[in-house]
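Sequence in, structure out.
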Amino acid sequence: MNKIKAFLKRKDIEFSLQRYGVDAMSAMAQGLFCTLLVGTILNTLGNQLHIGFLTKAVISVGSTAYTIGGLASAMVGPAMAVAIGYALKAPGMVLFTLVPVGYATNILGGAGGPFAVYVVAILAAEAGKAVSKETKIDILVTPIVTLLAGIAIASLIASPIGKAASWVGNLIMWATELHPFMMGIFVSAIVGMALTLPISSAAICAGLGLTGLAGGAALAGCCAQMVGFAAMSFKENRWGGIISQGLGTSMLQMGNILKNPKIWVAPILASMITGPVATCIFKIQMNGAAVNSGMGTCGLCGPIGVWTGWVEPSAAALSNGAAAYSPSMVDWIGLVLVSIVLPAILCLIFGQIFRKIGWIKEGDLKLS
């Protein structure tokens, strides 16, 4: 047993929630962002603003032509796998070999491909790390083991994982359509909390394929956390806090939440209000890329996702019955209210109440 522990330590193979549940998932979300999300934004901008170089095909593979954005989106599987490998501190040859592993796994996983890539990339990366630099022919052994392990594991579990994730996502979306008020509260609160926790709400939403009303509720919850904390902590953090939390991430408050969990109550309450406002009053649907549902106001990706869904729904949204349309003034008002105005107002009110009753004290929301 001691030899095994020593071997794992030498190989930097660490079985921990931090390594797999936080580092790997956060990196996976970055891979999603840099390919699928950016590609979707570029395609939408090109089509809506008639930007020639963004709408022109730059490469054709068989009968399929790819724009710059389309090419970026097509590389989402490899990007996620490499990002996960990087987070696991995989050596170079393991990292590079994860490119075909991620590509194959994402395709085999179907609609739930992101979760399949998450699991398979971790297993393939750790297998590659285990044999890396253990032989004199490392240049052959490491990539071959990584590739064969990754493809073998993907062929066994990628499709079941993808189908299971897709089933859960479809169940959540179906339940939200059926009970928009209660599910609006539930989805908004849970996904919003996931955004503030050191896990990736974006990766979760992408893996589950959350679009439609459920995606709108998730957007509301994420915005409530980010804008809410930014507004509520303005006294302590000023404009730097507005930018770092409102356009960055509310995860910055995690250290303060551990010291005083009561500071988290206001954004959670705000999300429980804005969620059903989104689903029942304005009927906001996230029909852009599902990853946008878990982005909130980070780089304004959440609201941009709603806009892209209005004018150019994603393939997943189209499969669920979405259709392109021209947004009305009410649509725009609802998006601004749910994404920015209501979270700010609600958290300012709740924050003031909690300061008066002693739940929030001076310095509790100060970012270090």
